[in-house]
Amino acid sequence: MHLQIKASLCSQCVAFLRQKVAQFDARNLEYLRLYDRTGVTARKGVWGRCRYPSRKKKLGYRIRCCVSIAQFPNPVKWAVGTRRLDARRWEWVWREDQFRTLEEAFVWIAGHEAFHWLRHSRQIPGRNYETQANRFGFAWLEEWRTLAATSEGRVK
Ligand SMILES: [Zn+2]
User: How far is the CA of 34 from the centre of ligand 1 (A)?
Assistant: First the structure.
């Protein structure tokens, strides 16, 4: 697996991402790419894509993550589930938070896209829904925050 980073992330964050991926079987993962697109594109926020294996092209999973955030903290709001109101109606369940650093933004989107890879390759349970991918992103984010908070001075 190739972790390719075009963003100025602190080394602790890079190590964290490397360790998160290493917990799983990453032989089928071609690459995990992180791009800081701030100031390069009109698009704002975080986005990414997990491409599934192509037998024809002999390629495994390919994950790209992009961040374009000029100012931190950056408020975010993502759907993390649905709630049934009655027999026919339901509503989204949202989680509001904020990305305080570039590292937090990348950890969240990397977790989100990694969910698609891990679920599709049946390494974790669940359903391959956006809401579940969002939850997985938050799980990585919380882990990263705990780690970053316990090692002050090395966090940007
Ligand atoms: Zn997704």
Answer: 15
Distance 28 CA to ligand 1 centre (A): 19
DSSP-derived secondary structure letter, 59: B
Please give the distance, rounded to the nearest whole angstrom, from the Cα atom of residue 67 to the centre of ligand 1: 14
* Chain segment 37-74, per-residue pLDDT in tens: 999 999 999 999 999 999 999 999 999 999 999 999 99
The whole domain housing 26 covers 2-149
* Ligand 1 mean position, distance from CA 130 (Å): 5
Phi/psi of residue 58, nearest 5 degrees:
55, 45
Instruction: Select from 54, 58, 8, 62 the least CA-distant residue to 35.
Output: 8
Ligand 1 ion: residues within 5 Å (CB): 130, 133
Percent of residues in the chain assigned helix, strand, coil, to nearest 5: 35, 35, 35
In a domain, 57, yes or no: yes
Name the domain count of the chain.
Answer: 1
Q: How far is the CA of 85 from the centre of ligand 1 (A)?
A: 25
For residue 154, pLDDT over 60 is answered with no
Tell me if 74 is assigned to some domain.
yes
